[in-house]
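pls design
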């Protein structure tokens, strides 16, 4: 099993209403138009992931994105792809589609920002809220 943990913060402009993507960013600001962003000030971006983790994603392995905020947990299941670039300096985007650009972490996700537990989203509207995002790849799958 490969595992990466990201810590990020909430922001007053978190909406999490996007229908096909969700995003974590190192940026410390968020405009109301950023409706796919769940949290800001992340301590990792795609370029910070280990080479083993990136290799597994490029092999098309299944990825579990576990979002932990307060006492709540939500999980998103997505998949890697051989076309992944995985070197963006500040963003990580999980997509329901198969579209890939420099910001893409995984594709074919079962959830987007609008599908995340609304109790988590509500907590992430507070800039004092800290979230833990656990990325897990089971290499046997």
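designed seq:
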């Amino acid at each position: 099993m490969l595992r990466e943990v990201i810590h990020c913060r909430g922001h007053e402009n978190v909406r999490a209403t996007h229908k096909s993507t969700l995003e974590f960013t190192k940026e410390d600001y968020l405009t109301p138009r950023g409706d796919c962003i769940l949290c800001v000030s992340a301590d990792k971006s795609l370029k910070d992931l280990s080479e083993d983790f990136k290799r597994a994603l490029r092999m098309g392995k299944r990825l579990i994105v576990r979002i932990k905020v307060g006492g709540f947990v939500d999980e998103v299941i997505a998949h890697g792809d051989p076309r992944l670039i995985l070197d963006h300096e500040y963003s990580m985007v999980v997509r329901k589609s198969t579209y890939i650009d420099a910001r893409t972490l995984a594709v074919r996700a079962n959830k987007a920002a609008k599908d995340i537990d609304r109790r988590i989203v509500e907590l992430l509207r507070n800039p004092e809220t800290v979230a833990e995002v656990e990325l897990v790849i089971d290499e046997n799958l």
